[in-house]
Amino acid sequence: MVALHVVWGVAGGNPGLRGNVPGSLVAEPRSADMKKAFTLIELLVVMVIAAVIMAVAIPSFLGMGRGAGMRTAVNNVRSTASLARQWSITHREEIIFMVSSTGMIYNVTNGVFSKATNDHACYYAIAVSAGNTSIVQSITDFSMDVTIDNSSATSVVFKTDGGLGGWNCDNRKNAEIILKPKTGTGLQKTIIINWLTGGVSVR
Q: Could you give the number of structural domains in the chain?
């Protein structure tokens, strides 16, 4: 079907074209160039739709990035705590699992841990046997957007039977390691270590 547009006829036009007299309406076929062109309204509609999609999608992508850092931190703490428990049972050694809201440095020469100058939260595990200290899990930093809550447990002792020692055993209290976003508000995650069995779960 040929698109038509209406123009006003002018005097002296082609007498073979019906209605081509002054003041009359003339139907002429639309040119190919006009068919291919976009109108300003169409372009504005496309731009508005693109802006709405970007406004919805960008925060979601940013949230996915923050969520990935938290998921990684939770999985690492859970697996390391489980490793520490298994090590204590297998090697018959007490294992101390540590988390810190600041970076840590281990001096190999004297076997002493000290705080680093950075503020990256980290975790590690050490075995203590006959006064000697050995590394079970080296110092590992959390993602830069994850830290430790102030109410979180920072030291958990696994006994040789896999259960918890120290304060947790004396008070029959589970140890709770609480991770939270470093900035802004977000979902906290709590890694719970059962005081009796040393089993690890996430809430």
A: 2
